[in-house]
Amino acid sequence: MAKQHLACFLYGAGDARLEPWHDPVIEEPQDVIIEIGYTGVCGSDVHFWVNGGIGAYMVQNPLIMGHEAAGTVVSVGEGVTTLVPGDRVAIEPGIPCRRCSNCKAGRYHFCGDMQFAASPPTTHGTLTKFFKAPVDFCYKLPDSMSLQEGVLLEPLAVAVHAVRLAQIGPGVNVVVFGAGPVGLLCGAVVKAFGASKVVAVDIVDQRLAFAAKYAASGAYKPETELDAIGNAAKLVHEQGLGDSGVDVVIDASGAAPSIQTGIQVLKMGGTYVQAGMGKSDVDFPIMAMCMKELHVFGCFRYGAGDYDLARKLVGEGKVSVKELITGVVPFEQATQAWETIRRGEGIKVLIEGQK
Which residue from 192, 72, 203 is spatially nearest to 141, judged by alpha carbons? Predict the structure, then answer.
């Protein structure tokens, strides 16, 4: 009989239970089994906790939560040559089919058969004692990087993907809307890529203060009495961004006012990346987008090379993530971690692995 440990199952909105779950076993030559050290709390976890899911992805059967994770290798399949038990790894939580046209074209994050951790109906996540992943989705951590920092490679990979879409290089001016974890990390990656100015925009004073200390060269709080055009003009003037607008905008908020202001603040021919998800439909300044001939990108999770680059940025000291970790709770208090983020307290809370 397979051994069992506890796992954190979500049954529906506000209903999470710690129940026994069988430990995974090696089935394929490339399998790796990891003892989870920490799992991070993502905004999507809070949506699931509060609403029982997101959009069409609603919990129908008990689902093990968690997808931002790092841990220690305990066993490997016979075909694994790059990892051994005792190695510490970050886990990329989405496993594609590897066979469809998108996978074969190198766009595996578009795979229609993606098995993403903690996704309904039945792809379980990392809030358990042991987790199994293929070796090529396990990233060995350097000795200089802690397991806690390894957890942050997941949201950092999201930021890397957004910044790479914008093709940011030395000398550009960038405005990042939203100073949550992904927005903060976008600012850090932009800075590492050589941007001249990185301005953070948010409506929460504490977040702006943190952003200014972390990676942003400037911060702006939108004024509620101004429309998008007015806030854009004031932002450009106050932050000394010239008279033609900024080169790149990354929206990590998903909020309609940020989207609208972001389009207005861009210069002619500028680049806009939508990294944050919000309502399914929002009012969008399509006339400004057309007349400015903007380059507009959607942004979904992360793709080929993003996780590895995230690891290198942290490992080489070009991006620091430990400042974002504002709390660690025991495994048995996972719901308290979700509630902490729901209340807007802290930036990134981690759930410790089972003892």
Answer: 72
The DSSP code for 250 is E
Mean pLDDT in the chain? 96
pLDDT for the residue numbered 56: 84
Q: CA 284 to CA 255: how far, in whole Å?
A: 11
- Name the token pair of 294: 């903007």
- CA pair distance 172, 246, nearest whole angstrom: 8
List pLDDT tens digits, range 26-54. 999 999 999 999 999 999 999 999 999 99
The answer to whether the pTM exceeds 0.90 is yes
Neighbours of 298 (CB within 10 A): 9
Phi-psi region of 178 (alpha: psi -120 to 50; beta: other; left: phi over 0): left
Cα gap 65→42, rounded to integer Å: 11
Cis peptide before 24 (omega within 30 of 0): no
Residue 1 has pLDDT above 60, yes or no: no
Q: Judge whether 248 and 270 are in contact, CB under 8 Å.
A: yes
Q: Is the pLDDT of residue 281 over 70?
A: yes
**Angle ∠(43,44,48) on CA atoms, nearest 5:** 120
**Tokens of residue 344, six digits:** 């807007």
Rounded to whole angstroms, the Cα distance separating 251 from 247 reads 13
